[in-house]
Every structure is written in C-alpha cells, then in structure tokens.
Write a structure and sequence with these properties.
- The chain is an alpha/beta fold and 661 residues long.
- The protein has 21 helices and twelve strands.
- The strands form four sheets. It has a four-stranded mixed sheet with strand order 1-2-3-4, with helices on both faces. Strands 5-6-7-8 form a four-stranded mixed sheet.
- Helix 9 packs antiparallel against helix 10 and helix 18 packs antiparallel against helix 19.
- The longest helix has 39 residues.
C-alpha cells in the first residue's frame, strides 16, 4: 500500500507549473542582490533598452520628467507639463530627458508602447523632437515655431507651452507660422531678445543705480550752488531759494531709490524653477541604490552602450581588483543636474551616501567622457589625476563612434588601475563642490555688489559735472562777450547815431595810425585813397565833427573805408569786403549766396555752408522807412562795395564831385 502523501502525476505537474514563476523571481532577486554570483557564473543580465524602459514609464503616466535635470526641469514640474499636454486635443506622450540628439528615440518608444498619439521629447533647451503617430497634429511645424519664436533662455516649460499653443491652432495655421519663422530666422539663427538677465547684467544694474542714486542729487547740490553764486551781483539769496536745491536733490534721490527696483525688477537669471529637496536627491538615491546591488550601474534612461559580454567582463575585472572596491556609474553629467556637472561633487555625494571607500568612476553615455576619483584606496593619486591617458578619459578617443567606444575604454581603465602603483591608504573625504542648488538662478539684490563702487563713481561724476559746468559757463561767457563785441563793431541794423559815432572814431584812429607809421609806397597809396574817400564822404568840419547832412549810407561807407585803411596799415591786402555786411571786414573767399557768387568773411562763409537760411538776419540794413533799407539799395557810393574796394573809392570820388557841382 502506497503512502497517502504521494501525489498523483497530474497533480505534481500542475504544482510545478504554479511554482515556476515564483522560482524565477527568487532566482532573479538572488542574482540582482549578489552580482558576484552572476559574475562567477553566467553573464549578468543586461538592463532593458532605453526605449523599452521609457515606454514602461509612459505606460504608467503619459508624462515622464527625468530626475537628471533638477536645476532646469525639476520632477515637481510634471503636473505643469501634464496640464499643457491635455490641451493638444490628441493623446500626447511627453518625455523630458537630457539632450542626446537621438532622432529615432520617439519612434522606438512608440513601437514598444504600441499606442498612437503625439510624442514629444523635451530637453534642457526646449522641445527637441516631436512626432505624430496615427493622429493629425502639426508636430514638425509646432516644433519649428517653438524653436524660432523664443529666445534661448525661455526654458523647457515655456517652449512646450508655445508648442502646445501652435498645435491647438490647427495644421494650416501652424504651417503658415512655421513658414514665416523659417523665412525670418532659418538662414542666420534666432535674433529674439533674451528674456532673463545674467548675473553680469545685474552687476551693471547695481553699478548704474549707485552712480545715479548719489551722482544725480550731488550734482544738483554742487552745480546749483555754483551757478547761483556766479550770478551777476553776487546778491545773497533768500532762505527759500537756498532750500530749493536740497529739496530737489532729496526728491531725486527718493525717486531713484524707489524707482530703480521697479525698473530692474527681475529676480532670476533663467526660467528654471527652484527644485525641492526631493528633486535634488532623486537621482543620487537611485544611483546609490543601484550601486549597492551592483558596482556597475548604467542609467536606464540613457542609451545602453554596454552589452551583456562587456558587462560580464567588467564585473570580472572589478571583482579581481585587489586594492578595494570600484564603483562605476554610467550616467550623464550636465550643468542642469544636482551636481551642476561637477564630477567631484557627484562622486562625493555617492561616497557620502554609500559610506564605502573605493575608486568611483563616472562615464557619461551621452558625451563619452570618463572621470574617476579615489576615496581612501592605497593608490598613487598623482598618477590617477595626471597620467590618465586621453584615450581613456575624454580627449583622444574616437568621437565619431556612436557608442564612444565606452565598453573598451572602461576595460582599458581597469587595466590602468591594475597598473597604478600602490600607496599608503588614506581616508579621503572631499567636500561637496556643487553650488548652492536653491541659489543657482537667483540674481543678487540690486543694492549689493557693484552698487557700492557705483556710489563712489557717482560722487566722482558729480565732481566732474561741476567742473564741466564751470568750464562750460566760462566758455559761454567768453563766446557771448566776443559776440557782443562783434555785434557792437558790426551790427546788422546800426542806428544813425551809432554810424556817426563809429565813423568819427574810425577816421580819427586811421589818421593817427597813418601819421605814426612809415608804410611803403604801395600801402601808403592804398591807405591815403581810403582816408581821402572817407573824409570826402563825412564832410568833417575844422573841429572834427561830421556834417549834420551826411546820410547813414555815406556814414557806413566811411566806416568801411576807414577800417579798410587801418587793415592795410596792419599788412592786410583788402580787395573786397564782405558783401553780406561790409562792416564785417575783408572778404576772404567767394561763396554762393542765393543765385549769385559773392565775397564773404569767414563767419558768413561758415554759415552759408552749414545753414544758409540763417544768413538773412546778418545782412546790413540802414536806417530808413519800413524797418530799414538794404545797403545795396541805399543812395550814394555804398552799393559799389559789392564789386570791390577800388570801385567803392572810385564811386565815392565821383559821387562827391557830382555833389559839389
């Protein structure tokens, strides 16, 4: 009789079938928890492909935000991306990953997910790729608009928002917008103004604020006091007047102090949101957990560059390394991750969390760069730091290779470590070199940094302005004095009294200078001709007074002749006088004056060339009816001066002879 506990054949087979999945799971768990076992026996199982893992992530949630970019796109922004994705009107799957330039990733993810919809890949710069599978959505056109319509610092979330807005406008509208963007920006890149200031820009704002805050009020006080004290009469001002400048300066300082923060109101230098503590530690925790079970950790979100045999070989090399553990993390390092792209900061964080000394190796699957840091193993740190071959690190390897030759170079790295001389073991604890994560994008306060040097420069600028004001006022007074003197010597509308007084003074001066000098015969003749003609016109009495019947035109001609004679005594040869106003003196050149050419003085020449419409007020007009008579139409010999000084002398003698007869 058989024992009752002996199972029938069919029941035993059914029980084995039921237990088989549990046995497989148990075996997999043992292998994962004890990688050395896998290394000694069969090859360690290779991780799932990047596309397969991402498809699993999207199967659980149509929006997946990586934990590798917390400084730019924290994982806590996932609800914002999801809210935007819901507005496209079609099933939308969004992957937010570090940029790797893979143009086939979305297609591979779609094949493994098996769901139609709009697939969008977003990196740290914005929408990197977009594909529509089985749905009508202008993916390529929307991506083009998002690329060219936004500045480089717009950020991924704003870029995705623009992408969604264009998708929502339909295919026809999106195509027109994309064509317009390609025409405007496709040939030479984007020319859209940046949205955010840099820290250097904030330093400039702080400096400018300091300059204006102190320089402007101080300039009002100093310059106002100087101008007030330089006023004619030097009279003592009343108390109210003296209080005006301090009041204006105080008001100006208050306006600058209150208005500058309103004008320079930005507080961050990028569109990145402040990450939470969970955002900053998520990837570190993931990598540390992986390294606790396997010293070779490959980032599942990145391209898988190590196949099964290569992983098995690396496991063997790591296990045979006698100085101590080697931890390899095949993960990207970027400025937007928790370590700000600093390999020492990243390995220090891993070392502090694992609490195990060893050689920590970081291999970037996107760039191909390999770095290592030793924590406490008895190895020659100088050789590790300065003698690592460029073919192994990041300088001299074949960059054209799609996998960067990463597996072969990691194997070579283990050979390099095996050949590194041993040294005394030293416990190494390196401080975290990453910048403060929550302050990465915060601009310094406006009233800080270069604001204080700006105050000093503002004070110096106020002093410089005072000096310029003082110098400018002196120059202005000098120019006005010259103009007043010139206007007094040659007015455009002289009175009869002025003409009579000036003619007498000029004739007396000419007679005195002529009698005291010893000119040569040519000059003597010219001076005598001028003096004789002027005397004939003025009909001077024996007491030196000019006749009462002498007309203003004759008096003006006498002044011109007397001044020409005095100029000849000074060595000047005068053939023509200024035809705009003969009282100006010699004509130095011919210029176009209206429709004719005429001799003019230096001042009139400049004015005719620069602003001919302003020459009219300078033309000589003699006393008469209707506001004055142009000298060209005056009776007597004066109009002849337009043809030259000899013609004026000859016309004067002819005129006086006719008058005498």
């Amino acid at each position: 009789m058989r024992v009752a506990t002996e199972w029938p054949h069919h029941r035993r087979r059914r029980t084995v079938v039921r237990l088989w999945p549990a046995l497989l799971c148990t075996l997999f768990t043992v292998l994962a928890a004890h990688p050395a076992v896998a290394a000694d026996g069969a090859a360690a199982p290779a991780p799932a492909s990047q596309a397969a893992l991402l498809a699993d992530r999207l199967r659980a949630d149509p929006v997946y935000v990586t934990d590798q970019m917390p400084r730019t796109v924290p994982r806590s922004t996932a609800p914002d991306f999801a809210a935007l994705a819901a507005r496209t009107g079609v099933p939308t799957y969004v992957l937010v990953l570090p940029g790797n330039g893979a143009r086939t990733l979305l297609g591979a993810v779609h094949d493994r997910l098996g769901r139609d919809g709009l697939y969008v890949l977003v990196d740290a710069m914005g929408v990197a790729d977009a594909r529509a599978f089985g749905v009508r959505a202008p993916a390529a056109d929307a991506q083009t608009v998002a690329l060219y319509s936004l500045p480089y610092d717009a950020g991924p979330l704003r870029s995705f928002r623009t992408f969604v807005d264009v998708v929502g406008q339909g295919s026809d509208r999106a195509a027109r917008l994309a064509d317009d963007m390609r025409r405007r920006h496709g040939g030479g890149g984007k020319d859209v103004k940046a949205l955010y200031l840099s820290k250097e820009d904030r330093a400039g704002q702080s400096f400018l604020t300091g300059v204006v805050l102190l320089g402007a009020p101080l300039s009002v006080l100093l310059t106002g006091a100087y101008v007030r004290r330089r006023r004619r009469g030097q009279r003592s001002d009343g108390r109210r007047v003296r209080l005006v400048e301090p009041a204006v300066a105080a008001a100006l300082a208050a306006v600058v102090a209150v208005g500058a923060p309103q004008l320079f109101h930005q507080t961050t230098d990028s569109a990145a949101l402040a990450p939470t503590h969970a955002d900053l530690t998520a990837r570190l925790d993931r990598v540390v957990t992986g390294l606790q079970h396997d010293p070779l950790y490959t980032d599942p979100e990145s391209p898988q560059l190590l196949d099964g045999p290569r992983r098995q070989e690396l496991h063997r090399r790591i296990g045979d390394f006698t100085p101590g553990p080697v931890y390899m993390a095949v993960v990207p390092l970027r400025s937007e991750d928790e370590s700000a792209g600093d390999v020492t900061a990243f390995t220090t964080a891993l070392h502090q969390r694992l609490r195990k000394d060893g050689v920590y190796v970081v291999a970037d699957p996107l760039s191909g760069r390999i770095d290592l840091v030793n924590y406490g193993l008895p190895l020659d740190d100088r050789r590790l730091a300065f003698e690592l071959p460029g073919t192994l690190s990041h300088e001299d390897y074949d960059h054209a290779s799609e996998d960067h030759g990463l597996g072969q170079r990691l194997d070579g790295l283990m050979t390099f470590l095996d050949g590194t001389p041993r040294a005394a073991a030293q416990h190494s604890s390196r401080p975290d070199a990453a910048p403060a994560p929550l302050e990465d994008h915060a601009l310094p306060p406006l009233y800080s940094g270069d604001f204080w040097p700006g105050l000093l420069v503002g004070a110096l600028a106020a002093g410089l302005l005072l000096g310029l004001t003082a110098g400018g006022l002196r120059v202005a007074r000098f120019v006005l004095r010259i103009r007043r003197t010139a206007a007094a010597q040659s007015p455009a509308a002289p009175s009869a009294t002025w003409l009579r007084r000036t003619a007498a003074a000029e004739l007396d001066a000419l007679a005195t200078e002529f009698g005291a000098g010893e000119p040569d015969d040519g000059v003597r003749k010219q001076v005598w001709d001028c003096l004789d003609a002027a005397m004939l016109l003025t009909d001077r009495a024996p007491d030196g007074r000019i006749g009462a019947a002498v007309t203003p035109a004759d008096l003006a001609a006498a002044v011109v002749l007397a001044r020409a004679g005095r100029a000849a005594l000074r060595g000047e040869r005068i053939g023509h006088c200024c035809t705009v106003n003969p009282l100006h003196g010699p004509g130095v050149t011919e210029e176009k004056d209206g429709t004719r050419r005429a001799w003019v003085c230096g001042s009139c020449r400049t004015l005719l060339r620069s602003a001919p419409h302003r020459i009219g007020p300078l033309r000589l007009r003699l006393p008469g009816k209707g506001g004055g008579v142009p000298y060209e139409k005056a009776p007597g010999p004066l109009p002849a001066v337009r043809r030259g000084l000899p013609q004026l002398i000859g016309k004067t003698r002819e005129y006086v002879s006719v008058q005498s007869s």
